[in-house]
Known about the structure:
mainly alpha; Hypothetical protein af1432; 3 domains; 4-stranded mixed β-sheet; 30 helices; 10 strands; disordered C terminus
Amino acid sequence: MKKVKLFFATLIQNIFNFFDNRYVIAVIFFALASLLLLPKSYKSFYDLNIGDVAPKTIRSDVSVLVEDKDATKNKIKEIKNNTPPIFDYNPDYVDIVIANIETAMNSINKNNPTESMTNFFKILKTKPNSSIYKRLLRYDKQDIIQYAKIALSSVKDYYVISSIKLLYKFNTPRIIIRNIKNPKHEIALNKNDVIDLSRAKIIAYNALKDAVSDNVLRSTVWDFISELMGPNITFNNLATQKAIDEEIKKIGHVFFKISKGEIILRSGDIITKTDYLKLNALNSTKQKQNLVLKFLSKIISFIIISIAMYKSYTIMKKKSNNLAMKKNTMIAISATIIILQMLILRVFSYISVLMNYSSPDVSKMAIIFGTPFAFASILSAVIVDFEIAFFVSVLISITSWLIVDSSMSVYVIIYVLIGSVIGAFFTLTEKTRTGLIKAGLAVSLSNTIMIFVFYMFSGTELSQSVVLFDLFFGVLGGIMSYIAVSGLLPVFEYVFNITTDIKLLELGNLNNTLLKELAIKAPGTYHHSIVVSSLSEAAASAIGANATIAKVGSYYHDIGKIQKPMYFIENQSDGINPHDRLKPSISALIILNHVKYGVEIAKKHRLGSYITDIIKQHHGTTLIKYFYNKAKENGQNPKEEDFRYKGPKPQTKEAGIIMIADEVEAASKTLENPTVSHLNDFVREITNSIFLDEQLDECDLTLKDLNLIMDSFVKVLVGIFHHRIEYPEEEKLTPQ
């Protein structure tokens, strides 16, 4: 039985791991959205394939041209194979090299060898070679120029290519040579009339050998000029492709004609490839619109939507540093919201057609106006923030245009976009249940105004009954958006284990069952959590972090102490400390486990990722110094990692604030008769200790933030200890 349970537990975990991947989510989202955006299919008039038997004699009732795509492809292939490649020819290449050699040799200055050598090779446009340069200096420069000219001039009248292999990449026996001085002048040349660079060098060397008998001089001249030799014809890919394109344009596409009344198939004939092409042509003429183009346009639109959605998420992620939500969770939530909204639009679009058919007095647009299209933007604003909600609004407006079958498609885009943005904006100002009602009413008002504007532009009299129907459904659309969000928000919170501001406010109610249990079982911890929440809320407000998360997270950060409350000093009222009877390692384990128990309780009660992460991170990887030092005093050799919390370190500003507030509150109980200056030093010392222990390295708290946090802590502590604080004489002075 245990093995079966283990098997199913592992299977479920693997399924969750599989879906916890942004690429899997993206594929699922793409598939579902494609189905929802898929246009209505039209059955072909002749649903036959190659090899089928014609069930009856089929005649063409229209005259139509049918493209023979295979024949067109073959023609294009033939043109590509038969069009000769074009090469650019530079007739002055050798003369330019010889001129450079003369200039370089005449520039030699033996009085300044280093600068002269640099200038020498710069003129030749080659890499400096000190060995060749020194060898050239041994001879008269006029001899070098003369012999170089003899060798290079021997290949002047040849067509030289870098490699002969380049020629044989083309099937044509000839190539086109285009003079770079006069591009319009072209000559056709046989491949055999072209030599490669290797062959050209052999010719040049033989000429040099005949002219120079001195082996050393010949070797020097050859080593010098062989590096300067290059091809004088080069392949022009752009011109070649242009020539091919021009030839293709001349032939165009290959068509065959079907005449009206022509028999395409006789009953019992086997359908050939040509027959199939003709049948497809007839089918296309019987369709009212080009479904392929329509489908492609919708797919392209959907790809744009997907890119925009992911881009909006990345922009939002960069702007919002206080989100504890995982990236994959965020993508999954965004995709789910979009899919649900698209499904709602599809359903209401279908209902609009049915209603218009059964009740002609109710226009299609009335049902469209009543669609709860603002559901996605409002829900996005509640779960994430306004930035992502705005982009969702844009996406939904585009989606509505693609889905809704209406002549007022442009009006639909404007109507959906404005209403969605207004709903998101009103949700942003007040993320409460009441705020959702206000957002729904704001959408209703926006819908009403937009409908009035539409009818004013269309010139319709506002007294007509159809206008009243549309206005009624417009108001209903806003109300239904609120109802949809209210109904589905708890589902999103449960399924994705997220904590919205609305849920945070509910968890922040001190009458919560879990907080009541904490107050009864661990009253000291409960009081400690209340004080920590006051410190954290003030600090979060001071630095612009989420004060609600900081406050509510503080309530639950030590919830794991419910398991063994008496092992924590704040809950010990009778002076008995059970740790006195335990080994330091066991005591440390009990203390460490309150984080583990807290995470388990948070998951069991589905407190959400914000609270769960704060419970994990509020101690970071700090050391339990008391029991660690006690173990050392007992003569043991303890491992430091056994006395450290497992972390992770705080990942958000709120978690970092709660870590500091937790330490400050716990340590403040030891203060006696504190002064304001004493409290300042006390808070600063604890904060610096946490900072130096590198516990705040992974959250976004800056030094400026820490100073503001410490100031806010002191103000709160002054309020707590005001009846015991003794002010120094200088602090008692008041201005006259």
